[in-house]
Design a protein that fits this description.
The protein is α+β, with helices and mostly antiparallel strands. It contains 7 helices and 18 strands.
Amino acid sequence: MDPTLTDTIDRRGDPLAFKLRQGSPSPLSQGGRDIIKVEARQMALHQKEAVITDGAESSAWRVTSDEGKHLKGTDLAPFPLGFFNAGIQVDLAQQIRRLAAERGIAVDALSLAVVNHYWLTGSFIHGTGEGHAETPDIDVRIESPAPTSDIEALVHAATDASPAIAFLRAALTTNSFALYINGRRRQVEGTENSTAPDAGDPYRTYKSAPRPLDPKGRADLVVKTGVSEDGQSAPAQATIAGKQLRNIFGESRLLSDGLVEVDTWLGMAGASHFRILGDAAGASAAPSGLALFAAGIAFCYMTQLARYIENMKLAINGVRLVQFTPFQGGAKDGTKAVAEPIDTHLFLNGEAPDETHLKLLTVAARTCYLHAASKTPTDPKLRIIHNGRPDARAA
């Protein structure tokens, strides 16, 4: 991967997302355990590029992320929290689709809506910023001739089988980190030290920028729709007086080919909408829900790194990371899905003292909304709408 900050996600004219390697199906879809791996690098401004692998032997995808104008981004690719929102919807849709087939329940149409709620307090300048996550809202709309009681049981079983929902419900307080400064690993302070062996620096792993496996493959996995929220974007402040609220919206529908089409956007003036496709059929036609989900976590953490470097004018560059996110899928016998702690290996370069690099790692972890979400157990507020009729008992 090119480490320079002059590189941009549209420099080569490639799609915002594409398949990089073909692999085999992940055991997650059959209730097994697997690890979603994200290898990411910072590019120009807030642009980021990542290679996400659906599992140890599974397909790999190149995806890109950016921030909107409120963070001085170029708004070319989806914002990190949009990937996370989309990942929840794709993973839950996959579980509903799978369990419906196992139970012989006909599903004529399936759509979801997810709203995530985050807020930030403190100051980037003083290193006191802190991210927070609240309980998300999830609507599940199903058209089916089956009895409502069967649909309710189906959806609740699907939430138990979803590793993404397991992540939201868990309190992952032992997320671990490893830090490499100018190529040498350092002991981490102020957060859990990773006990894993050294990860491969993406700069050395990839001798050149990732390119599509099939240059004629589909180019619509991630697109900017051209729709935006009304109003003009206002710059985000480095110091927050009270709470700075961030609501993330997403709406999706299950397509006939097993893909899930998600429209996601940030609930603020001028915010762009992005369409993200995820695979709910296990056919490797698009990234899995968990791949999108994990990419969102990595991208969000990198945004916090970039914001602190920018606000404090730190002599740090060449930001890269490798993130490992283990999951256990829900099994046919009713065993619930499990999300395990995140292990992040951060590569930093520059002339700043080691103490500054160490502080950057911990400040970014504390302000990252999705690391906050991992540590804050929240059981989503679920609403089931069967054939257009909401059931108050499902709330």
